[in-house]
Structure formats: structure tokens, C-alpha cells
Design goal:
This protein has 3 helices and 17 strands. By secondary structure, the chain is an alpha/beta fold. It folds into 2 domains: about 5-110, ACT domain (Alpha-Beta Plaits); about 120-225, Pectate Lyase C-like (3 Solenoid), CATH 2.160.20. The chain has a 6-stranded mixed beta sheet, with no helix packed on it. A hairpin with a 2-residue loop joins strand 14 (about 195) and strand 15. Helix 1 (about 15-25) packs parallel to helix 2 (about 50-60). It is elongated.
């Protein structure tokens, strides 16, 4: 099951879009890989001569999958539908079910559609249950706490620290907005991928002598796993 994300354009400049997408994807390698996106034109003005094919190519080059568009004038919707591009209607995300991540000031944003668990910006996100495969959680400008295990194929993202009172088996990214002091804590480490402030690893293993709670942190831009 996929969580669809909207790529909300704040500019139609292809070079600016490509640069902004690259910056965002590099902050959490692997987390946005092959994610389907709806390209949202509602905040920009697009003319009939706009090169949509080049835009979709640039998005795919960043390992995102454009699957539909929205926010276009009716005559452009018809043009894209005739070319086989799906058009979806504008929707207003329900409270507590939207996720916004600034790609760069004034350069657009990614918004996840309903299906992502998150707290309010600045408030700790507490999940008081184990996480099932395929679930995604994001703590905006705050810490994420999970009471229980995170199964394979879960994705946990926080701008601050991440605390998992159980086994970590999915993907996890702390310091998502670039905080190199962020840390990840867990009881058992068997993660598919670990990332702090954009520095990622798929091979991080706990130290042999570590017992009890484990911590993962950055030291000289290298991920370190150690006991608390």
C-alpha cells in the first residue's frame, strides 16, 4: 500500500524544481525512493506551451513517480488526459492527516495524502502501539516516540529525536530537517535503513557488548551505534 504524496509547485522553472527536489531527496536517502506523487499546479500559472514531459522527466530523475496531476485549467486537464495522464480533483486534507515538508524557501513542498500518522508541529508525536508494515509516521519539528516494535517496511521520520521502546526493523530518519544532534534510541536494532540529518546507512549494526537501550548518533558525520 502506497502513501500518495503531492508535489506542490511554487514555480514552473524546471531548473529550480530539479534543484529543490534533489535537495529534499538527499536529506533522507531511500525514504522517498519510488514514491508515487501527484503533481499539484494549483499555486502556479501554466500556459499551453508548458513542457510537461520535461517536468515529469525531472521528477522521475529524482526517483519519484509522477502518477497524476491536479490544479490545472480545464483545457490543460483535457490535453493531459488525452495523453494518458490521470487528473485528480482538488481535496482539502483532513486535520491531523497532512504532512508538509519545506523543500526550500519559496520552492514548493511535498504533502502526503491521508495515510500518514503525524502530530502537530512542535508537539511530540506518541504512538502507543506497535507499528505494522507499511505504516509511516512523521514528527514535525519535534520528537517521535513509539511504544512497541516497528516492523519491516515501516518508515519513521522526525525532525528531532526518535525513541522506540521495542525493536527497530523498518526505516528511520531523525533530524530530518538537518539537525545533526538528533539521536535514535531503541531496544533492538535490525533496521532496513537508518538516517540522521541526511547521513544514511543500511548496514549499521549494534556493538557486540551493547546491552539494554541502544543509541545512534552522528560523530564527525559518521553514524555511530552504541549502548546508552
Amino acid at each position: 500500500m502506497y502513501t500518495l504524496m503531492s508535489l506542490v509547485l511554487a514555480s514552473t522553472d524546471h531548473a529550480l524544481i530539479a534543484r529543490s527536489l534533489h535537495e529534499r531527496v538527499q536529506q533522507a536517502p531511500g525514504f522517498l525512493f519510488n514514491i508515487p506523487v501527484i503533481v499539484d499546479f494549483s499555486s502556479v500559472s501554466v500556459t499551453g506551451g508548458y513542457n510537461f514531459n520535461l517536468l515529469f522527466k525531472l521528477i522521475r530523475q529524482q526517483s519519484l513517480l509522477p502518477v497524476a496531476v491536479r490544479g490545472l485549467p480545464e483545457h490543460l486537464q483535457e490535453r493531459l488526459q488525452a495523453a494518458g495522464v490521470p487528473v485528480v480533483e482538488m481535496t482539502t486534507p483532513r486535520s491531523g492527516m497532512s504532512i508538509e515538508r519545506s523543500m526550500s524557501e519559496g520552492k514548493g513542498k511535498l504533502i502526503a495524502e491521508p495515510g500518514v500518522t503525524l502530530g502537530r508541529p512542535g508537539e511530540t508525536l506518541l504512538i502507543d502501539r506497535p507499528l505494522r508494515s507499511g505504516e509511516r509516521c512523521y514528527a514535525q519539528q519535534s520528537d517521535l516516540i513509539v511504544i512497541g516494535d516497528s516492523l519491516p517496511d515501516t518508515e519513521l521520520i522526525a525532525d528531532g529525536h526518535i525513541h522506540i521502546y521495542g525493536a527497530l526493523r523498518g526505516k528511520v530518519a531523525a533530524g530530518f530537517q538537518g539537525d545533526k544532534t538528533a539521536r535514535i534510541y531503541c531496544r533492538t536494532l535490525a533496521a532496513q535503513m537508518v538516517s540522521i540529518a541526511g547521513v544514511g546507512s543500511t548496514t549499521l549494526t549494534p556493538p557486540r557488548r551493547a546491552a539494554g537501550t541502544l543509541q545512534i548518533y552522528l560523530k564527525n558525520d559518521v553514524l555511530i551505534g552504541d549502548g546508552v
